[in-house]
Amino acid sequence: MQKLFYNRRRLALTGAVLVVVSALMGARIDRAYSDNPIMDQIHKYGEVLEMVQQNYVDKVDVAELNDAAIVGMLGKLDPHSVYMPPQNVEEQDEQFQGKFEGIGVTFTIIKDTITVDAPIPGGPSDQLGIRAGDKIVSIDGKSAIGMKEDEVRKELRGTKGTKVNVGIDRFGEEKPINFTITRDVIPIVSVMAHFMVDPTTGYVDVGRFAGTTYDELMQALNDLSKQGMQRLILDLRGNPGGYLEQAVRVADEFIGGNKTIVYTKGRASQFDDVLTSHPGDEYEKTPLVVLVDNGSASASEIVSGAFQDLDRALIVGQTTFGKGLVQRQYPLEDGSAIRLTISRYYTPSGRSIQKPYEGGHYVKNLTAAAQSDEEEDNYSHKYDVNSADTNRPKFKTAAGRTIYGGGGITPDFIVPNDTIQQTTKKIWAAGVLSDFSEDFVSHHIEDIKKQGGADYFVKNFRITDAMFNDILRRAKDKKVDVDMEQFNIDRPWLAVVLRAEIGRQIYGNEVRYRILLENDRQYQKAYSVLDEATHLAAAFK
After folding, report:
1. 8 pLDDT above the threshold of 50
2. Domains of the chain (ranges, CATH numbers)
3. How many helices, marked H, and strands, marked E, lie in the chain?
Protein backbone atom coordinates (compact mmCIF):
# COMPACT_ATOMS: atom_id res chain seq x y z
CA MET A 1 0.00 0.00 0.00
CA GLN A 2 1.19 3.48 -0.81
CA LYS A 3 1.04 6.04 1.96
CA LEU A 4 1.60 9.70 1.23
CA PHE A 5 1.15 11.47 4.56
CA TYR A 6 -0.09 15.03 4.95
CA ASN A 7 0.91 16.84 8.14
CA ARG A 8 -1.70 19.56 7.58
CA ARG A 9 -5.36 18.72 7.33
CA ARG A 10 -7.21 20.06 4.36
CA LEU A 11 -9.74 22.80 5.06
CA ALA A 12 -12.57 20.92 3.37
CA LEU A 13 -12.05 17.85 5.57
CA THR A 14 -11.95 20.03 8.69
CA GLY A 15 -15.25 21.63 7.71
CA ALA A 16 -16.86 18.25 7.19
CA VAL A 17 -15.72 16.99 10.59
CA LEU A 18 -17.01 20.16 12.31
CA VAL A 19 -20.41 19.68 10.68
CA VAL A 20 -20.56 16.06 11.89
CA VAL A 21 -19.64 17.22 15.41
CA SER A 22 -22.49 19.71 15.26
CA ALA A 23 -24.84 16.93 14.25
CA LEU A 24 -23.68 14.82 17.19
CA MET A 25 -24.58 17.70 19.53
CA GLY A 26 -28.09 17.70 18.15
CA ALA A 27 -27.71 20.91 16.16
CA ARG A 28 -30.06 21.25 13.24
CA ILE A 29 -28.48 22.06 9.90
CA ASP A 30 -30.29 24.82 8.14
CA ARG A 31 -32.26 23.56 5.17
CA ALA A 32 -30.75 26.41 3.23
CA TYR A 33 -28.00 23.91 2.49
CA SER A 34 -30.48 21.65 0.68
CA ASP A 35 -28.92 22.44 -2.65
CA ASN A 36 -25.72 20.80 -1.39
CA PRO A 37 -26.07 16.97 -1.52
CA ILE A 38 -23.31 16.45 1.04
CA MET A 39 -25.05 18.73 3.54
CA ASP A 40 -28.35 16.97 2.87
CA GLN A 41 -26.84 13.61 3.74
CA ILE A 42 -25.06 14.95 6.82
CA HIS A 43 -28.38 16.36 7.99
CA LYS A 44 -30.02 12.96 7.44
CA TYR A 45 -27.22 11.20 9.31
CA GLY A 46 -27.50 13.63 12.24
CA GLU A 47 -31.24 13.04 12.46
CA VAL A 48 -30.82 9.26 12.59
CA LEU A 49 -28.02 9.41 15.13
CA GLU A 50 -30.02 11.73 17.38
CA MET A 51 -33.07 9.46 17.16
CA VAL A 52 -30.98 6.43 18.09
CA GLN A 53 -29.39 8.22 21.03
CA GLN A 54 -32.74 9.45 22.39
CA ASN A 55 -35.04 6.54 21.65
CA TYR A 56 -33.11 3.24 21.33
CA VAL A 57 -34.09 0.63 23.91
CA ASP A 58 -30.56 0.36 25.34
CA LYS A 59 -27.97 3.00 26.09
CA VAL A 60 -25.68 3.56 23.10
CA ASP A 61 -22.11 4.74 22.72
CA VAL A 62 -22.42 7.59 20.21
CA ALA A 63 -18.70 7.65 19.39
CA GLU A 64 -18.73 3.92 18.70
CA LEU A 65 -21.74 4.27 16.41
CA ASN A 66 -20.04 7.11 14.58
CA ASP A 67 -16.91 5.01 14.03
CA ALA A 68 -19.07 2.17 12.70
CA ALA A 69 -20.77 4.56 10.28
CA ILE A 70 -17.41 5.75 8.95
CA VAL A 71 -16.23 2.14 8.56
CA GLY A 72 -19.40 1.27 6.65
CA MET A 73 -19.09 4.30 4.38
CA LEU A 74 -15.49 3.61 3.43
CA GLY A 75 -16.25 -0.09 3.01
CA LYS A 76 -18.51 0.80 0.08
CA LEU A 77 -15.60 2.31 -1.84
CA ASP A 78 -12.79 -0.23 -2.30
CA PRO A 79 -10.84 -2.83 -0.27
CA HIS A 80 -8.17 -0.34 0.84
CA SER A 81 -10.05 2.79 1.91
CA VAL A 82 -10.31 2.29 5.67
CA TYR A 83 -10.87 4.03 8.99
CA MET A 84 -8.12 3.61 11.58
CA PRO A 85 -8.72 4.26 15.29
CA PRO A 86 -5.89 6.04 17.14
CA GLN A 87 -4.33 2.75 18.23
CA ASN A 88 -4.16 1.54 14.64
CA VAL A 89 -2.44 4.71 13.50
CA GLU A 90 0.19 4.20 16.20
CA GLU A 91 0.61 0.54 15.19
CA GLN A 92 1.01 1.47 11.54
CA ASP A 93 3.79 3.92 12.41
CA GLU A 94 5.51 1.18 14.40
CA GLN A 95 5.30 -1.20 11.43
CA PHE A 96 7.42 1.00 9.25
CA GLN A 97 9.60 2.84 11.74
CA GLY A 98 10.03 1.07 15.10
CA LYS A 99 9.73 -2.31 16.79
CA PHE A 100 7.35 -4.12 19.14
CA GLU A 101 6.70 -7.53 20.69
CA GLY A 102 3.90 -9.72 19.43
CA ILE A 103 2.94 -12.24 16.77
CA GLY A 104 3.96 -10.01 13.85
CA VAL A 105 0.87 -9.36 11.73
CA THR A 106 -1.01 -6.31 10.54
CA PHE A 107 -4.77 -6.69 10.46
CA THR A 108 -8.09 -5.04 9.67
CA ILE A 109 -11.47 -5.92 11.17
CA ILE A 110 -13.87 -6.54 8.30
CA LYS A 111 -17.51 -7.29 9.17
CA ASP A 112 -16.59 -8.27 12.76
CA THR A 113 -13.79 -10.60 11.61
CA ILE A 114 -10.04 -10.06 12.10
CA THR A 115 -8.46 -10.24 8.65
CA VAL A 116 -4.68 -10.44 8.26
CA ASP A 117 -3.42 -7.68 5.98
CA ALA A 118 0.08 -9.18 5.94
CA PRO A 119 2.47 -11.10 8.18
CA ILE A 120 5.51 -9.01 9.01
CA PRO A 121 8.42 -10.60 7.09
CA GLY A 122 10.70 -12.60 9.35
CA GLY A 123 8.27 -12.44 12.28
CA PRO A 124 6.79 -15.48 14.07
CA SER A 125 3.54 -15.51 12.08
CA ASP A 126 5.46 -15.29 8.81
CA GLN A 127 7.66 -18.20 9.81
CA LEU A 128 4.62 -20.32 10.66
CA GLY A 129 3.06 -19.68 7.25
CA ILE A 130 0.23 -17.32 8.19
CA ARG A 131 -0.83 -15.44 5.06
CA ALA A 132 -2.47 -12.22 3.96
CA GLY A 133 -6.23 -12.79 3.83
CA ASP A 134 -6.28 -15.32 6.69
CA LYS A 135 -9.17 -14.67 9.09
CA ILE A 136 -8.48 -15.01 12.83
CA VAL A 137 -11.64 -16.57 14.28
CA SER A 138 -10.39 -17.60 17.72
CA ILE A 139 -7.67 -16.57 20.18
CA ASP A 140 -6.68 -18.96 22.98
CA GLY A 141 -9.86 -20.94 22.51
CA LYS A 142 -12.20 -17.95 22.67
CA SER A 143 -14.14 -16.66 19.69
CA ALA A 144 -12.51 -13.60 18.14
CA ILE A 145 -15.58 -12.68 16.11
CA GLY A 146 -16.79 -9.24 17.12
CA MET A 147 -13.63 -8.29 19.03
CA LYS A 148 -12.72 -4.63 19.00
CA GLU A 149 -9.33 -3.64 17.68
CA ASP A 150 -7.92 -2.68 21.07
CA GLU A 151 -8.98 -6.10 22.39
CA VAL A 152 -7.29 -7.86 19.49
CA ARG A 153 -4.11 -5.89 20.02
CA LYS A 154 -4.13 -6.73 23.73
CA GLU A 155 -4.62 -10.44 23.00
CA LEU A 156 -2.02 -10.78 20.25
CA ARG A 157 0.76 -8.62 21.61
CA GLY A 158 2.81 -9.77 24.57
CA THR A 159 6.21 -10.52 25.98
CA LYS A 160 8.77 -12.30 23.83
CA GLY A 161 8.69 -16.06 24.43
CA THR A 162 5.03 -16.25 25.48
CA LYS A 163 2.63 -18.26 23.33
CA VAL A 164 -0.82 -17.63 21.92
CA ASN A 165 -3.12 -20.02 20.07
CA VAL A 166 -5.08 -18.65 17.13
CA GLY A 167 -7.67 -20.32 14.92
CA ILE A 168 -7.51 -19.29 11.27
CA ASP A 169 -10.13 -19.58 8.56
CA ARG A 170 -8.33 -19.81 5.24
CA PHE A 171 -9.83 -19.81 1.76
CA GLY A 172 -9.76 -23.34 0.36
CA GLU A 173 -9.54 -25.05 3.77
CA GLU A 174 -12.67 -26.83 5.01
CA LYS A 175 -11.90 -26.36 8.71
CA PRO A 176 -10.07 -23.70 10.73
CA ILE A 177 -6.32 -24.19 11.11
CA ASN A 178 -4.98 -23.87 14.64
CA PHE A 179 -1.61 -22.12 15.08
CA THR A 180 0.48 -21.91 18.23
CA ILE A 181 2.54 -18.73 17.87
CA THR A 182 5.51 -17.82 20.06
CA ARG A 183 5.61 -14.04 20.44
CA ASP A 184 8.88 -12.33 19.63
CA VAL A 185 10.45 -8.93 19.15
CA ILE A 186 9.33 -7.75 15.72
CA PRO A 187 12.22 -5.86 14.14
CA ILE A 188 11.18 -3.36 11.53
CA VAL A 189 13.79 -3.88 8.86
CA SER A 190 13.42 -4.05 5.09
CA VAL A 191 16.36 -6.11 3.88
CA MET A 192 15.80 -9.49 5.46
CA ALA A 193 18.99 -11.10 4.14
CA HIS A 194 21.80 -10.56 1.65
CA PHE A 195 24.69 -12.83 0.68
CA MET A 196 26.65 -14.22 -2.25
CA VAL A 197 25.28 -17.46 -3.72
CA ASP A 198 28.34 -17.98 -5.92
CA PRO A 199 31.50 -15.93 -6.59
CA THR A 200 29.66 -13.50 -8.91
CA THR A 201 25.97 -13.69 -7.92
CA GLY A 202 24.36 -11.77 -5.10
CA TYR A 203 21.01 -12.39 -3.44
CA VAL A 204 18.93 -9.78 -1.58
CA ASP A 205 15.53 -10.29 0.04
CA VAL A 206 13.49 -7.09 0.53
CA GLY A 207 10.56 -7.78 2.85
CA ARG A 208 8.78 -4.40 2.67
CA PHE A 209 9.18 -0.83 1.48
CA ALA A 210 9.58 1.13 4.71
CA GLY A 211 11.24 4.47 5.39
CA THR A 212 14.77 3.04 5.31
CA THR A 213 14.43 0.49 2.51
CA TYR A 214 16.53 2.27 -0.10
CA ASP A 215 19.37 2.95 2.35
CA GLU A 216 19.30 -0.65 3.61
CA LEU A 217 19.34 -1.98 0.06
CA MET A 218 22.27 0.23 -0.94
CA GLN A 219 24.27 -0.98 2.07
CA ALA A 220 23.53 -4.58 1.06
CA LEU A 221 24.43 -4.03 -2.61
CA ASN A 222 27.65 -2.22 -1.75
CA ASP A 223 28.61 -5.04 0.60
CA LEU A 224 27.93 -7.63 -2.11
CA SER A 225 29.87 -5.58 -4.68
CA LYS A 226 32.93 -5.71 -2.42
CA GLN A 227 32.56 -9.50 -2.46
CA GLY A 228 32.56 -9.60 -6.26
CA MET A 229 28.88 -9.33 -7.19
CA GLN A 230 28.35 -8.95 -10.94
CA ARG A 231 24.71 -10.06 -11.16
CA LEU A 232 21.78 -10.07 -8.74
CA ILE A 233 18.66 -11.97 -7.68
CA LEU A 234 16.23 -9.58 -5.97
CA ASP A 235 13.58 -11.41 -3.92
CA LEU A 236 10.27 -9.53 -3.49
CA ARG A 237 8.16 -12.57 -2.61
CA GLY A 238 5.73 -11.87 0.20
CA ASN A 239 6.56 -8.16 0.09
CA PRO A 240 3.23 -6.43 0.84
CA GLY A 241 4.41 -2.99 -0.29
CA GLY A 242 4.86 0.22 1.66
CA TYR A 243 6.07 3.67 0.71
CA LEU A 244 5.73 4.61 -2.95
CA GLU A 245 8.72 6.96 -2.76
CA GLN A 246 10.97 4.13 -1.55
CA ALA A 247 9.79 1.80 -4.33
CA VAL A 248 10.60 4.44 -6.94
CA ARG A 249 14.07 5.04 -5.48
CA VAL A 250 14.80 1.29 -5.53
CA ALA A 251 13.65 0.93 -9.15
CA ASP A 252 15.59 4.04 -10.16
CA GLU A 253 18.81 2.48 -8.89
CA PHE A 254 18.60 -0.13 -11.67
CA ILE A 255 17.01 2.01 -14.42
CA GLY A 256 19.09 4.64 -16.15
CA GLY A 257 18.11 7.55 -18.36
CA ASN A 258 14.89 9.48 -17.93
CA LYS A 259 12.23 6.75 -18.06
CA THR A 260 8.80 6.48 -16.51
CA ILE A 261 8.83 4.13 -13.52
CA VAL A 262 5.20 4.58 -12.52
CA TYR A 263 2.44 7.12 -13.01
CA THR A 264 -0.75 7.78 -11.08
CA LYS A 265 -4.16 9.02 -12.24
CA GLY A 266 -7.04 10.06 -10.04
CA ARG A 267 -10.44 11.68 -10.51
CA ALA A 268 -8.92 14.88 -9.14
CA SER A 269 -6.02 16.06 -11.30
CA GLN A 270 -3.91 17.09 -8.30
CA PHE A 271 -3.37 13.39 -7.64
CA ASP A 272 -1.92 12.75 -11.11
CA ASP A 273 1.83 12.27 -11.13
CA VAL A 274 4.63 10.79 -13.23
CA LEU A 275 7.69 9.42 -11.44
CA THR A 276 10.80 8.91 -13.55
CA SER A 277 14.32 7.52 -13.31
CA HIS A 278 17.55 9.48 -13.28
CA PRO A 279 20.86 8.56 -14.94
CA GLY A 280 24.12 7.86 -13.16
CA ASP A 281 23.33 5.10 -10.65
CA GLU A 282 25.85 2.33 -10.05
CA TYR A 283 23.69 -0.72 -10.77
CA GLU A 284 21.97 0.34 -13.99
CA LYS A 285 23.71 -2.40 -16.01
CA THR A 286 23.78 -5.16 -13.39
CA PRO A 287 22.03 -8.30 -14.71
CA LEU A 288 18.88 -8.71 -12.65
CA VAL A 289 16.26 -11.39 -11.93
CA VAL A 290 13.32 -10.55 -9.65
CA LEU A 291 11.33 -13.12 -7.66
CA VAL A 292 7.62 -12.45 -6.98
CA ASP A 293 4.61 -14.41 -5.77
CA ASN A 294 0.95 -14.00 -4.80
CA GLY A 295 2.00 -12.08 -1.70
CA SER A 296 3.96 -9.45 -3.65
CA ALA A 297 1.74 -6.38 -3.66
CA SER A 298 1.58 -2.66 -4.21
CA ALA A 299 5.09 -1.14 -4.08
CA SER A 300 6.70 -4.47 -4.99
CA GLU A 301 4.42 -4.60 -8.04
CA ILE A 302 5.52 -1.10 -9.02
CA VAL A 303 9.15 -2.23 -8.98
CA SER A 304 8.66 -5.55 -10.78
CA GLY A 305 6.18 -4.01 -13.24
CA ALA A 306 8.60 -1.23 -14.19
CA PHE A 307 11.42 -3.72 -14.69
CA GLN A 308 9.23 -5.92 -16.90
CA ASP A 309 7.72 -3.09 -18.96
CA LEU A 310 11.13 -1.56 -19.63
CA ASP A 311 12.74 -4.95 -20.39
CA ARG A 312 15.22 -4.29 -17.61
CA ALA A 313 14.93 -7.59 -15.68
CA LEU A 314 13.41 -11.05 -15.83
CA ILE A 315 10.52 -11.77 -13.46
CA VAL A 316 10.19 -15.28 -12.00
CA GLY A 317 7.59 -16.85 -9.71
CA GLN A 318 3.81 -16.42 -9.55
CA THR A 319 1.36 -13.71 -10.55
CA THR A 320 1.42 -10.93 -7.97
CA PHE A 321 -1.45 -9.85 -5.72
CA GLY A 322 -2.87 -7.05 -7.88
CA LYS A 323 -3.00 -3.99 -5.61
CA GLY A 324 -2.80 -0.87 -7.76
CA LEU A 325 -4.64 1.70 -5.68
CA VAL A 326 -2.88 4.67 -4.08
CA GLN A 327 -3.99 5.76 -0.60
CA ARG A 328 -3.42 9.02 1.20
CA GLN A 329 -3.78 9.14 4.95
CA TYR A 330 -5.79 11.98 6.45
CA PRO A 331 -5.45 12.49 10.22
CA LEU A 332 -8.52 13.33 12.32
CA GLU A 333 -8.70 15.41 15.49
CA ASP A 334 -8.88 12.52 17.97
CA GLY A 335 -5.73 10.81 16.65
CA SER A 336 -7.62 8.48 14.32
CA ALA A 337 -7.30 8.68 10.55
CA ILE A 338 -8.87 7.63 7.30
CA ARG A 339 -6.80 6.10 4.56
CA LEU A 340 -8.53 7.07 1.32
CA THR A 341 -7.85 5.82 -2.20
CA ILE A 342 -7.09 8.89 -4.28
CA SER A 343 -5.69 7.45 -7.52
CA ARG A 344 -4.60 4.35 -9.40
CA TYR A 345 -1.04 3.64 -10.40
CA TYR A 346 0.05 2.41 -13.81
CA THR A 347 3.23 0.76 -15.04
CA PRO A 348 5.21 2.39 -17.87
CA SER A 349 3.29 0.47 -20.57
CA GLY A 350 -0.05 1.70 -19.20
CA ARG A 351 -1.05 -1.39 -17.24
CA SER A 352 -3.20 -0.97 -14.17
CA ILE A 353 -2.08 -3.62 -11.71
CA GLN A 354 -5.33 -3.42 -9.72
CA LYS A 355 -7.45 -6.54 -9.83
CA PRO A 356 -11.24 -6.16 -10.00
CA TYR A 357 -13.26 -5.37 -6.87
CA GLU A 358 -16.79 -4.44 -5.87
CA GLY A 359 -16.95 -2.08 -2.93
CA GLY A 360 -14.77 -3.44 -0.14
CA HIS A 361 -14.36 -6.90 -1.65
CA TYR A 362 -12.28 -8.41 -4.40
CA VAL A 363 -14.12 -10.41 -7.03
CA LYS A 364 -13.07 -13.35 -9.13
CA ASN A 365 -11.00 -11.92 -11.93
CA LEU A 366 -9.00 -12.83 -15.02
CA THR A 367 -5.95 -13.71 -12.94
CA ALA A 368 -7.75 -15.71 -10.26
CA ALA A 369 -6.84 -19.05 -11.78
CA ALA A 370 -3.29 -17.94 -12.38
CA GLN A 371 -2.93 -16.78 -8.79
CA SER A 372 -4.35 -19.95 -7.27
CA ASP A 373 -2.90 -22.81 -9.28
CA GLU A 374 -0.56 -21.57 -11.99
CA GLU A 375 1.15 -24.23 -14.00
CA GLU A 376 4.85 -23.99 -14.69
CA ASP A 377 5.66 -22.21 -17.93
CA ASN A 378 9.22 -22.13 -19.16
CA TYR A 379 8.76 -19.66 -21.98
CA SER A 380 11.52 -17.18 -22.66
CA HIS A 381 11.11 -13.47 -22.14
CA LYS A 382 11.58 -13.17 -25.90
CA TYR A 383 8.11 -14.62 -26.43
CA ASP A 384 4.61 -13.55 -25.45
CA VAL A 385 3.50 -14.03 -21.88
CA ASN A 386 0.40 -16.27 -21.77
CA SER A 387 -0.05 -15.77 -25.51
CA ALA A 388 -3.02 -18.14 -25.52
CA ASP A 389 -4.97 -15.91 -23.11
CA THR A 390 -6.94 -13.68 -25.46
CA ASN A 391 -9.32 -12.37 -22.77
CA ARG A 392 -6.82 -10.19 -20.99
CA PRO A 393 -5.87 -6.67 -22.15
CA LYS A 394 -2.61 -6.59 -24.09
CA PHE A 395 0.28 -4.17 -23.69
CA LYS A 396 3.75 -3.82 -25.16
CA THR A 397 7.09 -3.59 -23.40
CA ALA A 398 9.74 -1.09 -24.47
CA ALA A 399 11.19 -3.74 -26.80
CA GLY A 400 7.79 -4.60 -28.30
CA ARG A 401 7.13 -7.79 -26.35
CA THR A 402 3.46 -8.55 -25.55
CA ILE A 403 2.49 -8.57 -21.89
CA TYR A 404 -0.93 -8.75 -20.26
CA GLY A 405 -2.95 -6.72 -17.78
CA GLY A 406 -6.07 -7.68 -15.89
CA GLY A 407 -4.56 -7.70 -12.42
CA GLY A 408 -1.12 -8.28 -10.96
CA ILE A 409 2.23 -8.80 -12.68
CA THR A 410 2.45 -12.09 -14.57
CA PRO A 411 6.06 -13.35 -14.41
CA ASP A 412 8.20 -14.03 -17.47
CA PHE A 413 8.73 -17.50 -16.01
CA ILE A 414 5.88 -18.99 -13.98
CA VAL A 415 7.00 -21.37 -11.24
CA PRO A 416 4.37 -22.42 -8.65
CA ASN A 417 5.26 -22.84 -5.00
CA ASP A 418 5.74 -26.34 -3.68
CA THR A 419 2.71 -27.67 -1.82
CA ILE A 420 2.81 -29.55 1.47
CA GLN A 421 0.55 -32.28 2.85
CA GLN A 422 -2.30 -31.69 5.31
CA THR A 423 -0.45 -33.58 8.03
CA THR A 424 2.52 -31.27 7.66
CA LYS A 425 0.26 -28.21 7.84
CA LYS A 426 -1.22 -29.48 11.10
CA ILE A 427 2.20 -30.20 12.62
CA TRP A 428 3.47 -26.80 11.56
CA ALA A 429 0.37 -24.91 12.74
CA ALA A 430 0.44 -26.63 16.15
CA GLY A 431 3.88 -25.17 16.82
CA VAL A 432 5.56 -28.58 16.90
CA LEU A 433 8.44 -27.51 14.64
CA SER A 434 9.14 -24.28 16.49
CA ASP A 435 9.00 -26.03 19.89
CA PHE A 436 11.35 -28.75 18.69
CA SER A 437 13.88 -26.34 17.19
CA GLU A 438 13.91 -24.12 20.30
CA ASP A 439 14.48 -27.12 22.60
CA PHE A 440 17.09 -28.61 20.29
CA VAL A 441 19.06 -25.37 20.12
CA SER A 442 18.94 -24.85 23.89
CA HIS A 443 20.51 -28.29 24.43
CA HIS A 444 22.98 -28.42 21.52
CA ILE A 445 24.06 -24.89 20.66
CA GLU A 446 27.51 -25.13 22.21
CA ASP A 447 28.26 -28.49 20.58
CA ILE A 448 27.15 -27.17 17.18
CA LYS A 449 29.27 -24.04 17.47
CA LYS A 450 32.33 -26.12 18.38
CA GLN A 451 32.00 -28.05 15.11
CA GLY A 452 32.45 -24.93 12.99
CA GLY A 453 30.85 -21.67 11.89
CA ALA A 454 27.86 -20.81 9.72
CA ASP A 455 29.36 -22.18 6.50
CA TYR A 456 30.11 -25.51 8.16
CA PHE A 457 26.57 -25.67 9.52
CA VAL A 458 24.97 -25.00 6.11
CA LYS A 459 27.07 -27.67 4.41
CA ASN A 460 27.07 -30.38 7.06
CA PHE A 461 24.21 -30.18 9.56
CA ARG A 462 21.43 -32.68 8.83
CA ILE A 463 18.14 -33.78 10.43
CA THR A 464 18.40 -37.35 11.75
CA ASP A 465 15.80 -40.11 12.15
CA ALA A 466 15.95 -39.60 15.91
CA MET A 467 15.01 -35.95 15.44
CA PHE A 468 12.09 -36.88 13.20
CA ASN A 469 10.93 -39.38 15.84
CA ASP A 470 11.05 -36.61 18.45
CA ILE A 471 8.85 -34.46 16.21
CA LEU A 472 6.33 -37.30 15.86
CA ARG A 473 6.28 -37.74 19.65
CA ARG A 474 5.63 -34.03 20.14
CA ALA A 475 2.86 -34.10 17.53
CA LYS A 476 1.22 -37.00 19.37
CA ASP A 477 1.45 -35.11 22.68
CA LYS A 478 -0.36 -32.19 21.01
CA LYS A 479 -2.97 -34.62 19.69
CA VAL A 480 -2.11 -33.95 16.05
CA ASP A 481 -3.50 -36.70 13.83
CA VAL A 482 -0.44 -37.71 11.76
CA ASP A 483 -0.81 -39.52 8.46
CA MET A 484 2.56 -41.27 8.15
CA GLU A 485 2.33 -41.58 4.37
CA GLN A 486 1.90 -37.81 4.08
CA PHE A 487 4.60 -37.21 6.69
CA ASN A 488 7.11 -39.29 4.75
CA ILE A 489 6.29 -37.48 1.50
CA ASP A 490 7.21 -34.18 3.16
CA ARG A 491 10.28 -35.39 5.07
CA PRO A 492 12.72 -33.70 2.64
CA TRP A 493 10.80 -30.42 2.94
CA LEU A 494 10.63 -30.72 6.72
CA ALA A 495 14.36 -31.42 6.90
CA VAL A 496 15.13 -28.18 5.06
CA VAL A 497 12.74 -26.10 7.16
CA LEU A 498 14.10 -27.51 10.42
CA ARG A 499 17.72 -26.97 9.40
CA ALA A 500 16.87 -23.41 8.40
CA GLU A 501 15.14 -22.62 11.70
CA ILE A 502 17.87 -24.16 13.85
CA GLY A 503 20.47 -22.30 11.80
CA ARG A 504 18.58 -19.02 12.23
CA GLN A 505 18.51 -19.36 15.99
CA ILE A 506 22.25 -20.03 16.16
CA TYR A 507 23.72 -17.98 13.31
CA GLY A 508 21.03 -15.52 12.23
CA ASN A 509 18.63 -14.88 9.36
CA GLU A 510 21.21 -15.18 6.58
CA VAL A 511 21.77 -18.86 7.34
CA ARG A 512 18.01 -19.46 7.35
CA TYR A 513 17.70 -18.01 3.85
CA ARG A 514 20.75 -19.85 2.52
CA ILE A 515 19.30 -23.19 3.58
CA LEU A 516 15.74 -22.48 2.41
CA LEU A 517 17.00 -21.60 -1.08
CA GLU A 518 18.44 -25.11 -1.44
CA ASN A 519 14.95 -26.54 -1.97
CA ASP A 520 13.32 -23.46 -3.52
CA ARG A 521 12.09 -24.16 -7.06
CA GLN A 522 11.39 -20.51 -7.81
CA TYR A 523 14.85 -19.44 -6.72
CA GLN A 524 16.44 -22.27 -8.70
CA LYS A 525 14.61 -21.12 -11.82
CA ALA A 526 15.72 -17.54 -11.20
CA TYR A 527 19.33 -18.70 -10.92
CA SER A 528 19.05 -20.73 -14.13
CA VAL A 529 17.98 -17.70 -16.22
CA LEU A 530 20.74 -15.35 -15.02
CA ASP A 531 22.62 -15.73 -18.29
CA GLU A 532 19.51 -14.62 -20.16
CA ALA A 533 19.19 -11.70 -17.76
CA THR A 534 22.78 -10.77 -18.62
CA HIS A 535 21.85 -10.47 -22.31
CA LEU A 536 18.79 -8.43 -21.35
CA ALA A 537 20.87 -6.02 -19.25
CA ALA A 538 23.39 -5.58 -22.05
CA ALA A 539 20.61 -4.62 -24.48
CA PHE A 540 18.94 -2.20 -22.05
CA LYS A 541 19.13 1.41 -23.18
Report:
1. no
2. 2-81 (no CATH), 99-186 (2.30.42.10), 191-325+345-417 (3.90.226.10), 422-522 (no CATH)
3. 19, 24
